[in-house]
Every structure is written in C-alpha cells, then in structure tokens.
C-alpha cells in the first residue's frame, strides 16, 4: 500500500482513537481494553502478580492489597492489565465487582458478581465456570479431558442417561471431595458444561430463583427467602473454596468511592472493607484487591470500628500496612502512553505515520509531564488536539469542554464519541445486560426523564416519580410516569427474574390503590412458564381486569438507552453536564423515537407480546449424535 501524508491526514480527520475513551468501563475489564503500557505503575500490578504466585506456591493462603489513586490516575487501567495478564495463565480466576446497588444486601450482590465473573472466558477460551467443572470431573474420574471436550460430550450423556448423568458425576466428585458441604453447588457447576443448561445453572449459582419446573428438572432447590444474605455468604464461600482447589481466586472491588450508604450508616467502601475482612478470615486461599481514592482510605476505612484489624487484611503485604499508591505520569510515561495508543491505531488502519507520535510533537508532549497529569487528562487532551500537524495549544490539566467539536466537514456533539464508545461496549455485553433488570430500569428512567414536558402516544409526560414503598415492597416497581394532569399514572416494572420474583412483582403491579396507579406495565423479554400458576393468574388480572400491559423487551431497543445511561453515570469523569446529555438525547431522538418507550406509553392491547424468548419455559434435553471424542459414561 502506498501511504501519503494526505491519506493519514484524512484518516485523522475522520477517526479519533482517543475520543470517548477516557474512562475504563467494566466491559473493557473483561473484553478488549485500551492500549496498555506495562511499565506505567508496574509496582502496583506486579504486587498482585507476586501475590498470586505466592498463594499458588503455598507460601501464603490469603493476601489483601489496596491500591489508592486520585480520580483519573489509572486504577481501572491497572485492574484491566491484571485481568488480561491473568487470562493468559492457568493459575488463577478473576472476579470483579463494581456495582453496589443495594448495600443492605451486599452478600447477595457479591454472590451475583462472583457468578457473573465466572461466566467470563478464562485461559482455555471457555467460561471460567466450565474450567472448574472440567477440573472437578477430571479429578473425580481420573480423566484428562478439556472443558471443550466435555461440552461436546455432555449432549450425548444427557441424551443417553438424562439427569442421572449429572447425579452420577456429582456423586463422583463428592467421593473425592467429602469436605464440600453443599452438593447442589457441585451439581450446578457441573451443569455449566451442558450448552442448553449453562444459563440456568449460572443463574441459580447467582442465588436467583429458577422457574420451579426448571429447578426440579435440574435437581436444584430454589433459595429460601427467609435469610437470603446468610445463604448467599455461605454459598459464595463454598464456591470460592471449590475454585481454589484448581485456581487462585483474584477478587477485585472497584468503584468504591460513592456516597451511597447502608441502613447501618456505613458507606460503600466501609461495607466492602468489612466483607473483605470476613473473606480474608474464611477463605482457603485467594487474593483480595481493592481500589479507591486516598481520602476514602483515610476518611472511611481508618474510621471503621476495629479499623486496625481491617487495615491489616486490606494491606496485608505492606510492611507499614499502607495502600499501594499510584504515581502521576512523568514525561517518559506520557510519550510511552501516547505512542502505544497511536501504534495500535495506525496498525488497525494499516497506515505508517511520518513518526511514531504523529500528529503530536515529542518535545511538547514531554512538556506536559511537568504538570504531573493523570492518565485521563492526557487522553482527554489528546482527543481534543488530534488533528493533522496539531498545534499544541493547551495543557491537559486546563482543557475545557464545548457542546460541539468541529472538523473540516462535520459538527459533532460533544457527547457523541462517549456515546459511540459506550454503545460498542453494550453490543459486546448485551447478553448479560439483558439479565440486569435494575440497570434496564435505570435506563428507562433516564429516557422518560429526558421527555418531561413532551407529549407522546397521547400522554403529556409531566413527571417521573420514584415509588414510595415499604421495605417489603421496595424494588418491585421501578418508577411511575405521571401525565395528563395526573390522570395517567403508569407504574413500570422491569422483571427478568423467574421463580417467585415474577409473581411477587406482578402482585405489586396490580395493586393500583396501594401504589396510586392507573396502569401497570410489565417490561420483560421472556415467556412466563405456564406452570407458574400464581404468576400467570396475576398476569391475567393485570392484562384482562386492570387494563395493564406487558411490553416485550427487545435488545435492539434498549441498547442505545443503556449506552446513554452509562455516559450519564460517568458524566463527571467525562466532564459533561446533565444538560448536554439531555440535549444529545433530544438531538438524536434516542427516547422520543424509541419503540420501547412508545410502547410503554401506548394504549394497552390486553395481550401477551409475541416477540418473547423461551428462557422462561421448561428445558428439554435434545437428542444428540456422539462426537468424535465421545466416551461412554458408565453409571
């Protein structure tokens, strides 16, 4: 390919590798991440790698490490580096938690994060759950098959023996692991090797209820509702102990610097610190990693009751029991960082630039290091100055944000690159996001808030109101849409869970008097099991007696709303205002022309949607033809 200056300059005019990429999202922790320079803050990531090595060699049982850094200095970049390095090795499993929606149920949330994390692919290109399941079978049966070979063989075993195959394998594991006290967890882990059961197994392992027919078919008891928190902590310890037979669990807690508080008054970082102390004391082995601001450590962690015991576990490897502090960037770091980003960019587009830092000047980039900038401020500065033969006009610590960015041919809204980046992340993780009913509810809440004052489907939206509910009723209805001089009051409930939860949610949704509704609206993508008699009866009341509606949730409708929600969540890091985000939603018509939004407001049909998935229906075991590496399972 003949490369000219004009070819590269045209590329630069139309593609900006830095735009919208200043915040590391959870999707980048798990999937393709930003370009990384391993030498930047290597002391922090190396401390984690050394800890994994010590635990895997039996030199330590459990290690606690806390990383502190100011906003934008690169905490999540370091975590992403750790995850991607560990993914190439067979010695560890990675678990990541960054959402703390309900601090009063932190153990249940942690169990869900563990189960979700173990769905991510490990070193063998299958889910980490499946790696553990294969290891359990190999030890019990003294075999040496790969997870993928078991995945290939499972349909044949189930076709031949039905669920007796899983019962046999579970009993075989328990014979060699008699210390495992919960056989159902072993059974559920073994179910993850079945392609048609993996989603149900991981859902159950999250502590969530299956439809009763599914639970019975798989031989898994649904969790008791009396004390979910105690049950969740017991299960998560058992899961982590099982994983630690074969891998070192590396458990990371990120995004701890939020102001949310539990009912006992503890803030998120304090709640997690107490959880980590309990895990440190109870796990067979593992590495526990926390990331937070320095002031969070000083003002919150050190203020805990028995703070000394907590600190000893959160910074167990440091002689002075202090966190590992990240460093600001120097001139060499800045040059290395920008060079790596540009190298990836030019290689992706098969271009050879005039020099490795084009269109920037190395001397002037080095000058930026004198101000001790953060990773985020350098990337933001690069995004704003990425033009051919760019004049260096500003310092990264003094950059400003305008509503629009103008190129020679187009005017781009300031929010656009951040939205585009988040939309790409949503595309990658949409399967898991479709199960996250809380986040979907928040996305709908934001969309409807942006429409306040608009008239849509005959409803003039006047207000979006939170539901005032007792502790028993809290969380079942996401919000209420107020319109037409309070004559329209639509309660919106996003429900992707099965089991008793769907029945409980519908029970609230049909109680118009209690929650002051004129209409209840269920938002859900899955069928409701015909065998769930109570839920089906409440659904009949909603649709046929109460004039309510069931709106089918489609991934293509919710994707843009999730993307703009994630921009909204990180608006401070992106240096965006709420007004700019709402202006973008209006300009791009993300809400007003969204089919899901319109369907929620439209007159109810009284019918169930036809565009539903079969996830809520009973599982059937397909007939299977044995594969080439198939072996008989003798029961």
Walk me through what this model shows.
This protein has 635 residues and is of the alpha/beta class. 47% of the residues lie in helices and 10% in strands. It contains 27 helices and 13 strands. The chain has helices spanning 5-14, 26-30, 42-56, 75-87, 106-117, 128-141, 147-161, 164-176, 183-191, 198-205, 212-218, 228-243, 268-282, 294-301, 307-314, 331-348, 362-368, 375-384, 416-433, 437-450, 500-509, 512-515, 533-545, 555-569, 571-574, 578-588, 595-601; strands spanning 62-68, 92-97, 248-253, 286-292, 324-325, 404-406, 411-413, 455-456, 459-465, 479-483, 488-494, 519-524, 549-552. A hairpin with a 2-residue loop joins strand 8 and strand 9 (459-465). It is globular, with a radius of gyration of 26 Å. The relative contact order is 0.12.
List keywords for this structure.
635 residues, six-stranded mixed beta sheet, globular
Helix content: 40-55%
- Describe the sheet with the most strands: 6 strands, mixed
Q: What is the 3D form?
A: globular
* Broad structural category: alpha/beta
Summarize the entry for a quick read.
With 635 residues, the protein is α/β, with parallel strands linked by helices. The protein has helices spanning 5-14, 26-30, 42-56, 75-87, 106-117, 128-141, 147-161, 164-176, 183-191, 198-205, 212-218, 228-243, 268-282, 294-301, 307-314, 331-348, 362-368, 375-384, 416-433, 437-450, 500-509, 512-515, 533-545, 555-569, 571-574, 578-588, 595-601; strands at residues 62-68, 92-97, 248-253, 286-292, 324-325, 404-406, 411-413, 455-456, 459-465, 479-483, 488-494, 519-524, 549-552. Residues 390-394, 398-402 and 405-409 have low confidence and may be disordered.
């Amino acid at each position: 390919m003949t490369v000219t200056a004009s070819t590269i300059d045209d590329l630069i005019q139309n593609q900006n590798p830095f735009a919208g990429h200043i915040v590391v999202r959870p999707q980048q922790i798990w999937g393709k991440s930003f370009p990384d320079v391993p030498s930047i803050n290597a002391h922090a990531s190396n401390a984690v790698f050394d800890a994994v090595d010590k635990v895997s060699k039996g030199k330590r049982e459990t290690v606690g490490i806390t990383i502190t850094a100011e906003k934008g200095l690169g905490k999540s970049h370091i975590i992403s580096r750790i995850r991607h390095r560990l993914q190439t090795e067979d010695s560890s499993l990675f678990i990541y938690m960054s959402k703390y929606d309900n601090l009063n149920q932190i153990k249940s949330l942690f169990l869900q994060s563990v189960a979700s994390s173990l769905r991510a692919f490990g070193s063998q290109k299958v889910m980490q759950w499946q790696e553990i399941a294969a290891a359990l079978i190999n030890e019990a049966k003294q075999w040496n098959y790969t997870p993928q070979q078991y995945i290939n063989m499972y349909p044949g075993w189930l076709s031949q023996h039905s669920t007796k195959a899983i019962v046999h394998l579970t009993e075989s594991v328990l014979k060699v692991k008699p210390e495992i006290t919960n056989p159902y967890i072993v059974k559920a882990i073994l179910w993850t090797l079945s392609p048609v059961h993996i989603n149900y197994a991981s859902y159950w392992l999250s502590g969530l209820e299956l439809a009763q027919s599914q639970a019975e078919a798989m031989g898994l008891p649904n969790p008791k509702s009396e004390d979910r928190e105690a049950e969740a902590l017991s299960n998560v310890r058992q899961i982590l102990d099982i994983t630690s037979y074969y891998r070192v669990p590396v458990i990371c807690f990120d995004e701890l610097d939020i102001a949310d508080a539990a009912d006992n008054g503890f803030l998120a970082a304090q709640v997690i610190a107490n959880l980590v102390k309990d895990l440190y004391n109870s796990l067979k082995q593992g590495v526990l990693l926390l990331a937070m601001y320095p002031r969070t450590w000083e003002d919150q962690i050190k203020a805990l009751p028995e703070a000394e015991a907590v600190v000893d576990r959160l910074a167990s490897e440091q002689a002075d029991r202090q966190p590992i502090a990240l460093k600001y960037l120097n001139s060499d770091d800045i040059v290395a960082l920008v060079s790596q980003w540009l190298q990836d960019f030019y290689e992706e587009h098969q271009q050879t630039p005039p020099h490795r830092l084009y269109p920037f000047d190395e001397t002037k980039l080095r000058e930026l290091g004198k101000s001790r900038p953060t990773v985020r401020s350098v990337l933001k500065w690069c995004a704003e100055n990425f033009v051919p033969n760019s004049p260096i006009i500003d310092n990264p610590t003094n950059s400003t944000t305008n509503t629009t960015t103008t190129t020679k041919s187009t005017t781009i809204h300031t929010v656009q690159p951040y939205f585009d980046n988040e939309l790409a992340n949503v595309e990658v993780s949409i399967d898991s996001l479709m199960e996250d009913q809380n986040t979907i509810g928040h996305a709908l809440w934001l969309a409807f808030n942006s429409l306040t004052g608009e008239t849509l489907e005959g409803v003039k939206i006047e207000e979006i109101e939170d539901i005032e509910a007792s502790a028993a009723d809290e969380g079942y209805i996401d919000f209420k849409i107020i319109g037409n001089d309070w004559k329209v009051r639509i309660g919106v409930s996003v429900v992707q869970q099965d089991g008793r939860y769907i029945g409980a949610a519908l029970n609230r949704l049909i109680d118009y008097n209690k929650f002051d509704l004129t209409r209840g609206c269920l938002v859900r993508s899955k069928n409701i099991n015909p065998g769930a008699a109570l839920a089906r009866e409440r659904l009949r009341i909603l649709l046929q007696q109460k004039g309510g509606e069931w709106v089918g949730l489609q991934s293509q409708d919710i994707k843009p709303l999730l993307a703009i929600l994630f921009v909204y969540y990180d608006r401070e890091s992106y240096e965006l205002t709420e007004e700019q985000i709402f202006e973008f939603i209006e300009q791009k018509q993300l809400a007003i022309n969204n089919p899901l939004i319109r369907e929620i407001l439209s007159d109810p049909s009284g019918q169930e949607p036809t565009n539903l998935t079969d996830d809520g229906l009973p599982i059937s075991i397909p007939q299977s033809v044995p594969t080439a590496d198939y072996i008989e399972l003798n029961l």
